[in-house]
């Protein structure tokens, strides 16, 4: 075979996976794609941006270690509440490295989402590896936490954002995962807009930045694009909050870096603003100080909600305008088991019972 023919065949083999989704039918929202089970890939949501709550979600990777408790208590304490007066939330992507599994119960009870990030934190590039890692780590969370069950675990993130392409989605669907947040999208400048989460009913329609990407149809399975942040100065992209080449060097620069990215979403298409990061980023005091101030300032907005990724997808399935958002059940102040019983509710009930008992005794003495 000639060198020229070899080059041509190589080019075809490389480019074909990038373009195969173009042979799939075009997704038209409201016609061949209907919520809550299907949502087309898009940069512009059908709702008016002014009527969309600006979602901010945190996806924190790796082992959940005891020292992280102080950071999470400070940054995501129960006193920090969204405009609907409900506590803010986050998603923990848990790997098997040094994880305090019993601590996961407390985080879940506080409203955090618990998701899976592999057992070994190695490159997972085949369906067989993924099945072993995803099922194995989910089983670890279930068996070692004692109180978290399979139906409470919805999401997966691949280490290093390396995936197994279509085999990845097939395995995750077979294991009853609802979504994947491993596929990267990189905008060119801060003024560009980011894509919304969508289902793979019509394949992955964005550019494939880390090969391979899913190219087939996977009806009903959600993907949350890892929308890379722009670095401090808008010189380049950061796959994770903590992966910039041009890193901020102070608390003020870190704060500006995060808030500039937030504002580009808030004043743009209102796509969810995802803060993808590793837990070790909190080891520096200036990072904690900056994030503390970021969260404080985000909660000053009356149309910004800090929720977990599963709650983000619940809104995607049933888009609710800002004027009705306080009635949106998945964001209401219930425990994750669906109970609305709270300490204050129990206290009021006990006082009411005691009051009725006292009233009956008093009436019996007066008229008995």
TrEMBL record:
Coiled coil: none annotated. Keywords: Membrane, Signal, Transmembrane, Transmembrane helix. One of its GO terms (biological process) is carbohydrate metabolic process. Residues 1-21 form the signal peptide. InterPro entries: CE4, Glyco_hydro/deAcase_b/a-brl. The chain crosses the membrane at residues 340-360. SUPFAM superfamilies: Glycoside hydrolase/deacetylase (SSF88713). Gene3D superfamilies: Glycoside hydrolase/deacetylase. It comes from the Eukaryota. This is NodB homology domain-containing protein.
């Amino acid at each position: 075979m000639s060198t020229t023919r070899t080059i041509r065949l190589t080019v075809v083999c490389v480019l074909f996976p990038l373009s195969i989704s173009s042979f799939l039918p075009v997704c038209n929202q409201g016609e061949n794609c209907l919520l809550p089970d299907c949502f087309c890939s898009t940069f512009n949501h059908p709702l008016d941006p002014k009527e969309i709550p600006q979602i901010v979600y945190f996806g924190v990777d790796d082992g959940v270690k005891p020292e992280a408790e102080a950071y999470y208590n400070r940054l995501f304490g129960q006193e920090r509440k969204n405009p609907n007066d409900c506590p803010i939330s986050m998603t923990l992507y848990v790997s098997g490295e040094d994880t305090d599994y019993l601590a996961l119960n407390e985080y879940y009870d506080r409203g955090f989402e618990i998701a899976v990030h592999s057992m070994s934190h190695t490159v997972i590039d085949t369906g067989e590896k993924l099945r072993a890692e995803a099922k194995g780590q989910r089983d670890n969370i279930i068996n070692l936490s004692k109180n978290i069950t399979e139906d409470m675990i919805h999401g997966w993130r691949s280490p290093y954002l390396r995936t197994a392409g279509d085999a990845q989605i097939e395995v995750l669907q077979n294991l009853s995962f609802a979504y994947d947040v491993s596929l990267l999208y990189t905008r060119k400048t801060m003024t560009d807009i980011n894509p919304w989460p969508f289902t793979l009913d019509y394949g992955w329609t964005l550019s494939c930045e880390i090969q391979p990407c899913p190219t087939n149809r996977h009806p009903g399975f959600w993907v949350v694009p890892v929308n890379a942040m722009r670095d401090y100065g808008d010189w380049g992209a950061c796959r994770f909050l903590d992966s910039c080449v041009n890193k901020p060097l102070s608390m003020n620069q870190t704060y500006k870096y995060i808030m500039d990215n937030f504002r580009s979403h808030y004043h743009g298409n209102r796509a969810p603003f995802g803060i993808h990061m590793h837990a070790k980023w909190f080891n520096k005091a200036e990072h904690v100080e900056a994030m503390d101030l970021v969260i404080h300032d985000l909660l000053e907005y009356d149309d910004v909600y800090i929720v977990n990724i599963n709650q983000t997808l619940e809104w995607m399935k049933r888009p609710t305008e800002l004027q009705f958002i306080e009635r949106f059940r998945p964001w209401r102040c219930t425990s994750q088991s669906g109970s609305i019983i709270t300490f204050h509710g129990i206290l009021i009930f006990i006082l009411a019972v005691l009051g009725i008992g006292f009233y009956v005794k008093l009436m019996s003495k007066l008229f008995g």
